[in-house]
Amino acid sequence: MTRQVVGIQFKNTGKTYYFDPGALKLEVGEGVIVETVRGLEYGTVVSESCSRKADDGEQMLKPVVRKATEEDLNRLEELREKEARAFRIGVDKINAHGLPMKLVGVDYTFDASKIIFYFTAEGRVDFRELVRDLASVFRTRIELRQIGVRDEAKMLGGLGGCGRELCCASWLREFTPVSIRMAKEQNLSLNPAKISGICGRLMCCLKYESAVYEHARGAYPDVGTRVETPAGEGKVTGVNIFKDTVTVELKESKHVQYFPLKEVKLCAKR
Fold this sequence. Notes:
Elements (H helix, E strand, L loop, with lengths): L1 E8 L7 E3 L11 E6 L2 E15 L10 E4 L2 H28 L4 E7 L5 E7 L7 H11 L2 E6 L2 H8 L10 H4 L9 H6 L6 H4 L14 H8 L8 E4 L2 E9 L4 E6 L5 E5 L4 E2 L4
Parallel strand pairs: 7-8
Antiparallel strand pairs: 1-2, 1-4, 3-4, 3-5, 6-7, 9-10, 9-13, 10-11, 11-12
Helix pairs in contact: 1-2
């Protein structure tokens, strides 16, 4: 079974969600009002309507209610102004309660029925009194949502060590796992200051070329392997996939030499 879907984003670099466009003809870049679990929300079309196979057990898609009108855009601008005010009040209230948390951002739902405060903290925070205090000020539902440091960097933006805008804040839709092994495979310095982003976690870009390195390393002998070279038998101590060389410590002289990969052969098993 297939159905028509359209991709919608609620933030510039947020995750893409799929909705039922119904009879609407939507183009990429258009603003729309959609029905979500939070109520009506404003989003932007990021992929044109297309057919998609429905997964077994998948819930019915929420509908696109309408294309955004001039009135909707004016309302969106008003909400942005309210969010700025709510942020300032939120910071003041957090300081007044002496809570160990940092406010990162504020979101109003499109119908203004709920305000979401995003914050970071080292551990769990008892913010029940803070919620009651905020609710008495705004007279609406309040939600406090704790986020991680990577999400904080995505929301606030900034420049990476490469001098470009952060990937997470400019185009990266979702975070993928990054490990120290990826840095090792790429022969990068393991100095945390050089392989960590401004969020303090391993840089997302370590993932981009990881598969290329992993594939290329498959043609080279593992470190510690015994090999035969034109200068005699030795042990592999390193490889350089860019220069296409293998570093070998020779068995007899203990000297370390570099050999082209094609001149290095695995020793026969004895």
